[in-house]
Specification:
Helices cover 77% and strands 0% of the residues. The chain has 488 residues and is an all-alpha fold.
Length: 488
């Protein structure tokens, strides 16, 4: 699900800048206890050799849970550095569940929570990310990366006081933490306090003088103060470090996209891609904004280009599949979802979307299996319960269908389709009174739901109330002319 955030008109690249609580390879190696070469290799840094070693450690039942937890944490970190967010979240979660703490104390667990939070945030699951940062701070109240990441989310959602409190504490704990200074400077700038923004940007540049985005944002702050000469000097330095402004453009594009301003995002991604035409992540990001605007051909082009550059880009397969799904091209959609799942077997969204495509193809049995997986891994997703309810009804299981629709309704009482679906299942169960009540609620939510009138007409027939049945049938055919054609 996309999170529509308030659009930040100043210092766009910095307001969401995360501080990644990553461990260096050396840190990882010291956390993997013992002199065993396998364990040491697991902590040697992102490489196929390290990943294979961590996998063997993780799967060795003779090792203590604490050592297997560290291997899982390392795998999560390696996944995250290469953009495999689904696996990163899964591995961090497994490490947390096994108990990462004993080897590094509360701080080790806290850093793992921050890393998982950052992965959640990258997926758009910002509520879970915020919860992880907060949990990390309960374990280690002085963990700067948790403070900065939580502040970035707070700022994006308009909670300026909370963001400043976290950033002030982070800056006081570590005066050399550029991330806290950059993020706080962005927050000051957005609020019009350019003097304090410049102070923080200047301190950040002393620590990170090659950061073109900070030079560019300080240039904007100076210009807001009317200091044209300093603004020009900073802009020139930014241009030297990033001649085409590609880095800043990419960041502006991502923030515009998260704010729902996809047309603006495409313009920024165009600039970034002009400078980096072979960057699959940028192509996929631009494809997402085309997709959100219903620009199917442009989205397909970008996803396909990204996949030509990176044939193992699971997220690009998944989103190209969504594009095909939007065009009712079920076969191509299914092929892409299959490939995404083969690359990332834990990608819940791909199972969900494949289930939708299978329902559209009429393969309700396979769809049922996909929605079983989604519900197991994301039990709070109301739409998954609704879709599984539909599949169960199509397979003749009205009792199971009614139960799934009831769960969907409990999660989202405003879902008129779930009310309508349960009403239909209740007709099949011989409960016309319950069906009428549910279908009436569906109509209250959406007065133009012709199918709800159609099904309620059937329920009235079951009660032998032909007058009301005819009235609902007339309304149904008015709203859904195809129903009239089906009668002929």
């Amino acid at each position: 699900m996309r999170h529509r955030l308030p659009f930040l008109t100043f210092a766009l690249a910095l307001a969401a800048a995360p501080a990644f609580a990553q461990q260096t390879p050396a840190d990882m190696q010291t956390n993997v206890t013992g002199a065993n070469a396998e364990r040491a290799s697991c902590g040697s840094g992102p490489s196929e050799r390290a990943i294979a070693a961590c996998t063997r450690v993780m799967m060795n039942p003779s090792l203590p849970d604490s050592e297997r937890a560290v291997a899982l944490r390392n795998l999560g970190f390696y996944d995250q550095t290469r953009g495999d967010l689904e696996h990163a979240v899964a591995n961090y979660t497994a490490a947390i569940n096994l108990g990462i703490g004993p080897m590094g104390g509360p701080t080790s667990m806290a850093k793992t929570l921050v890393n998982r939070g950052q992965a959640f945030a990258s997926q758009g699951n910002e509520d879970q990310a915020y919860a992880d940062y907060t949990a990390a701070l309960k374990l280690d109240p002085k963990l700067n990366s948790a403070l900065v990441n939580r502040a970035a989310l707070s700022a994006q959602h308009g909670n300026r006081d909370q963001a400043l409190a976290d950033l002030d504490l982070a800056a006081s704990l570590d005066s050399k933490d550029a991330a806290s200074l950059i993020t706080r400077g962005a927050l000051f700038a957005r609020g019009g306090d350019t003097a304090r923004a410049i102070r923080d940007f200047t301190a950040a540049l002393a620590l990170d003088p090659n950061n073109a985005v900070v030079w560019r944002n300080r240039s904007i702050a100076y210009l807001a103060q009317g200091d044209v000469e300093k603004s020009k000097a900073d802009a020139e330095q930014a241009d030297k470090l990033d001649p085409k402004g590609a880095t800043a453009a990419a960041e502006r594009g991502r923030l515009a996209q998260s704010s729902g301003k996809d047309a603006e995002a495409v313009v920024e991604f165009d600039r970034a891609i002009e400078a980096n035409p072979n960057n699959p992540a940028l192509l996929k990001a631009r494809g997402d904004s085309h997709l959100y605007q219903g620009q199917w051909d442009a989205a397909l082009s970008d996803y396909s280009r990204a996949l030509n550059l990176n044939p193992d880009f699971a997220e690009a397969f998944a989103n190209r599949g969504v594009t095909y799904l939007s065009r009712a091209d079920w076969d191509h959609a299914l092929a892409d979802f299959d490939r995404a799942i083969a690359l990332q077997p834990t990608m819940t969204a791909a199972y969900y979307n494949r289930g939708e495509a299978l329902i559209s193809k009429g393969d309700h049995k396979k769809a049922l299996a996909d929605f079983d997986y989604v519900i197991k891994n994301a039990p709070g997703k109301a739409e998954a319960w609704r879709h599984r309810g539909f599949a169960r009804h199509a397979l003749g299981d009205d009792a199971g269908s009614a139960q799934d629709y009831a769960k969907a309704i409990s999660l989202d009482p405003s879902d008129g389709e779930a009310w309508r679906g349960r009403g239909l299942a209740e007709i099949g169960l011989g409960k016309p009174d319950d069906a009428i009540a549910d279908l009436t609620q569906a109509i209250a939510i959406n007065a133009k739901d012709g199918m709800a009138y159609h099904f309620r007409s059937q329920a009235w027939v079951a009660k032998k109330d032909l007058g009301r049945a005819e009235k609902d049938d007339a309304m149904a055919t008015r709203l859904e002319p195809k129903l009239a054609s089906a009668k002929r």
